[in-house]
Amino acid sequence: MASQPVKQPATDCNGVFSEPRQLDLKEISQRGVWSIRSNANHDLNSFAGVVFNQQLKFGEMIKTGSLRLIQFWPQAAYLISDELFLPDSVSAFDTMVTDIGHGFCEFSLSGDRAVSFINDYTSVDINQNNIGRNRTVRTNLGHFSILLWWDEATDIHILVDRSYAQSLVDYLHKISDRWCIRDLAQVESDGSLSMINSSADPTQT
Description:
4 helices
């Protein structure tokens, strides 16, 4: 069996992020990302049907085991795996597949207030019904184009171009200080976490 390849970290992110609000930012380097694109032999629906036993719609994420398939492009989707190797279940569709993992960097932002923090700086409201239901969105965070997805509201995954990864980390650290001061002040004035409490899963609307 071939040994697991090693993907080098792209940033100096060390997990310590925002202690007052218990937010944790980590780079996830050992995960594979592939572009799945329709061609003359196969389309995305046939791929999703065989590999996931589900149908995929635009703006949705489907998953099975350690695999996720996310579509935000008319004829293409991103396949994300917990392994750097392409799964055997995809081998029949190799003409659709391009390894793009070397061009992206993934982060995990975790904590009870992760959704509230991200939602304050993205160009869309991720608490919207359709976004919360699909658990994924393609948007801007500041001037960075990112892809977000999550299984739980306390652990948000961020995918960004690798060349911008360190700049994104620096930006998140900078805005987190200001956000924490404002967030703590709002909680103290309200006496509660009110309706922006991100411990409530945005899918439960």
